[in-house]
């Protein structure tokens, strides 16, 4: 494992799984040992996707007949490993770290902060959109919105990219902002205008924004009875002008 850590080997993934299986059969001490020394044996991706995931699986808990104390000790080691991996390789490990840390508030907050710290330089828009959607699924719409706005700053859709794979993410981000309220929508529209130059995408966003009232379903499920937004006023006026300009250009 140490010899192939920094070199490509087609059998390595198979051997990683074999080593984890051996450690699982040997018991808690062996599992804790490979987690404590993960950086000498595994890449960050291997450590989170195979080692930590296996340790925290129900199959491992049941197979080793762990009591509550042993289970929590192993889980704590796995979460620590996941956070270390996320710091070392946020692009490939941040989402796994968040998933593994879901049941521990402090660890989850730490993983989220790692994502925010890496968002400006170390992560792509697709990775950030994926984590943003995960946050919405977990019931954190404002965090999802924050990550979506960060993702938008990395995106550049030119005039002829009307089939770009990121379009669905842009539409989702705008829909999320719209559902949160007028202030959130007003904050994301300048980012959309700066990042998206494709006329058909801009017009689709504009159309969707005029169908319902911003914040129609609030954070607590309360319906907002406000009026539909006017195209002649902010924030939609900026989006309208950008859409017209995109068609002309």
From TrEMBL:
A GO molecular-function descriptor: zinc ion binding
Key words, A-Z: Metal-binding, Zinc, Zinc-finger
Keyword Zinc-finger: yes
Record-level GO cellular component terms: Cul2-RING ubiquitin ligase complex
Pfam families: ZSWIM4-8_C
Domain named ZSWIM4-8 C-terminal: residues: 127-249
Name the UniProt record assigns to this protein: ZSWM6 protein
Native organism: Chaetops frenatus
Record lineage: Eukaryota, Metazoa, Chordata, Craniata, Vertebrata
């Amino acid at each position: 494992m140490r010899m192939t850590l920094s070199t490509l080997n087609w059998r390595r993934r198979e051997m990683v799984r074999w080593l984890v299986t051996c450690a699982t059969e040997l018991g808690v001490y062996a599992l804790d040992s490979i987690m404590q020394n993960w950086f000498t044996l595994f890449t960050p991706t291997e450590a989170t996707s195979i080692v930590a995931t296996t340790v925290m699986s129900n199959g491992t808990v049941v197979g080793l007949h762990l009591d509550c104390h042993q289970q929590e000790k192993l889980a704590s080691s796995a979460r620590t490993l996941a956070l270390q991996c996320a710091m070392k390789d946020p692009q490939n490990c941040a989402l796994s770290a968040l998933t593994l840390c879901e049941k521990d508030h402090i660890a989850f907050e730490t993983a989220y902060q790692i994502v925010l710290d890496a968002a400006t330089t170390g992560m792509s828009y697709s990775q950030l959109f994926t984590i943003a959607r995960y946050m919405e699924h977990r019931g954190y719409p404002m965090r999802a919105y924050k990550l979506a706005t960060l993702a938008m700053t990395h995106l550049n859709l030119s005039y002829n990219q009307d089939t770009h794979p990121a379009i669905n993410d842009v539409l989702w981000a705008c829909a999320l902002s719209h559902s949160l309220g007028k202030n959130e929508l007003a904050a994301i529209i300048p980012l959309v205008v700066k990042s998206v130059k494709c006329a058909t995408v801009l017009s689709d966003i504009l159309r969707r924004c005029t169908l319902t009232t911003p914040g129609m379903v609030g954070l607590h499920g309360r319906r907002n009875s406000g009026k539909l937004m006017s195209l002649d006023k902010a924030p939609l006026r900026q989006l309208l002008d950008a859409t017209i300009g995109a068609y002309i250009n």
